[in-house]
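Usage example:
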Amino acid sequence: MKACVVVFPGSNCDHDCWHVMHDVMRLPVEYVWHKQNALPKVDLVILPGGFSYGDYLRTGAIARFSPIMQDVVRHANSGRAVIGICNGFQILLESGLLPGAMLRNDSLRFICKHIYLKAVNRSSIFTKNIAANQVLNIPIAHGEGNYFCDADTLKCLEQEDRIAFQYVSESGQVNMDANPNGSAANIAGILNEKKNVLGMMPHPERASEAILNSKDGRVIWESLAAALN
Amino acid sequence: MTNMLQETPITKEIIQAHGMTQEEYERVCQILGRTPNLTELGIYSVMWSEHCSYKNSKPVLKLFPTEGKNLLVKAGEENAGCVDIGDGLAIVFKIESHNHPSAVEPFQGAATGVGGIIRDIFTMGARPILSMNSLRFGSLDQSQTKHYLRGVVGGIAHYGNCIGIPTIGGEIYFDDYYEGNPLVNAFCLGLIRHDELTKGKASGVGNSVYYVGATTGRDGLGGASFASKELSEASHEDRPAVQVGDPFMEKLLLEACLELVKTDAIVGMQDMGAAGLTCSTCETAARGSVGVEIDLVKVPRRETGMVPYEIMLSESQERMLVIVKKGKEEIVEHLFEKWDLHAKKIGEVKDGQQMRVLDNGKVVADIPAKSLTDEAPLYQRDSSRPVYLDEAQKLDLQSIPEPKDHNEVLLKLLDSPSIASKRWIYEQYDHMVRTDTIFLPGHDAALARIKDTKKGIAISTDCNALYGYLDPYEGGKIAVAEAARNVAASGARPLAITNCLNFGNPMKPEIFWQFRESVKGMSEACRAFNTPVTGGNVSFYNESPKGAIYPTPTVGMVGVIDDVDKRVPSFFQKAGDLIYLLGETKEELGGTQYLLTVHGKRKGLTPRLDLNRETALVKLMIAMAEKRAVQSCHDISDGGFAVAIAECLFGKRHHPLGAEIKNLDWAKGLRSDSALFGESQSRAIVSIALNQKEDFESLARSFKVPFTQIGRVTEKELLIGDWIRLPSAKLETVYEQAIPRRMSK
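Running the assembly step on the lines above writes:
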């Protein structure tokens, strides 16, 4: 599997994603500057976290107009893999590759902490290796991660098995106490129809090495590596 | 201000309005050989302000040890100190205050404080890898304090999170003495390869002077002068002197500048912080002993009608001055174009030593650069021992009854916002971006790894200012010692310190005495640990209408651990491990959080610090880590033994461990409150696995540090002799809820 990390002005998890690919997973990876018109030949496109364009208008709203995004959309529409993490997820929403929108966290504060996740969909290229009832300990770090969509969309996401991750308690229960930001249905990550595009608020790249207090995020990279090799 | 003012004759009132004395003005006239115009007067007034010139503090700062074999850049030479850590790598770090702006506009004041210190680091070519902060507020039961706390934490989060530098720790105290005058001290540390070290120096006649980054506006006009006076009711009228931060702009500037230092196109780089274009221009010229000429007509602006006076004194954020090699201008312009940033040639390096400022070709200022920097006035201020000290240091223990219910006292201390969990604060900071944060906030020291090496950097910011109030000398010593102890507890070797010296008005002899005594105490401790001072910042005039703050000399201690796998956490690891107390406990209740919180007293002599004992403890801690002889190590500070033991239980949220302390021989002959809540120095709590007993004890013996096996780690309850018996879950709840519960009111 070969990956690239798209660098927008204001991306700040680009180095972290590159590091996890290159040093932890030992996979080929390169950076792509947002002003480029074409992606290199890669299997996986990573849209990293950060504050693209300062998030001054609306998170991800300007980044979607970056020249590279046209090719990212083409890449996605041709069925190849795209993962958007945190701000990358917000960009995927703005660009229409995923449905819904982000609201400010219900606490109205930025939140950075470890939370618990479970994979709802366990058959996608991103989640294949996750065991049933496996609870993942992965950090979040965002001010706008309160996922919102209308009732029809939510129903559709549920029916089509497109909810990738939900916030859960340590023991795996979906409840309000486990929801850090007010997201609809405790949603932490969703897939597109073809299930080749994943957007998620938690940062698996921050939880892929034991020294960083959790390596539960690694299973996502391993799923991808197994599926795309 | 209009153009008319340019022609304004300099009157006494104008001189006074610039915060200059008549003598200083006469000295300016002498240097220039003529009277200055208004722009020149403005330039002198900011450069000779305390904030830029250290005119009142320099003679005292000379007491600090500033030499060390690892120092690549020493205090005062550049924007920040630089220390070699081996493998061709070095760290650049500094702490700086943004107290006055934060008092007037907490969110932007704190945000731009973070932005400013980050610029100080990358202007030297280093990549900023982590931030910390040290904060002081009034009582959290005051609504004004909540407003300040929300604003300051929000501002730090806004800037740090957006720019993508993790805020991985810090310290905070709440005390009435900071009411109306909060302290916001921001620390940043960067990593650099030796060969990328960039100086803030101009050289090479004919080289180009470039202005890069954000445009210039009227924001922050005269901020350096503003920071050099006391806060008053009228301070809110100074709001234009507070700058507005744009972390996205700074992120672009940061990336562009770090790309720039990898080219061979530049000879120097200097950020525009306090006193903006003025300071960066004259400092680069003075450091390089060359002349610099700039033309303001070329400066990118965000407002119309700005006169030279305003352009020179503006403190608009996110701007830098870059000295570019002749013929390499295109490289620089291309690079900044990539990042959609301004890069405008505004002048040239010249023969001579003048800083010459033109406005569309017409000279508006012509000043010997060194007269603004090296030749600023210096004052030996009067000092006298404060009258309050005699009374404050008196403590009659007979008059203080020993507590009847020690459980209640412990819970009260854990509920004190100065001691309680700071989770409400640090969860608003992105403390994990860059994926180097090994110790999550809450440990004695912050610890970050350096990728591609085995090394880690440990940092602790510390200052118990109540000690400083009761005994500035001892308080200064303890601030350094506690920071060294915290760094060493993690297993790292203390290397050097930066400091932020927050005091009241230095024109008052009693304040100046506090300042000098604090510096003396810090200096002595720095010598003992062999940790030189690499720089920092002095913040005077921290007085509100209610009076001066506590003397608050904040220390930022930086250490290195050669193998991060040998790090030592602050929390107990598993039930069954043995618990030891290191050090000696004395009858020392003066200046404790116990006296303050439970008895409402700021009284007594602070605990005494014996530097020989402290250095022995620090060396032992480093050796314990190196030999993997312990499971955890936590220093004992605010709240004493009982609070420290409780804190050791909180390693995993919602899963606190317990402890059973049955051996109280070490407390024999002491009052129960001294034993539990006294703050005797040079102590720590260590836990070890059963099979480490021999190694650990022989190590402690070899470093001549007293040790006592006092109990063991258990699962659910804290038990200390007959004094304390409390469920761990209860302790955790109180500790965790103290700040959120007050903030939600």
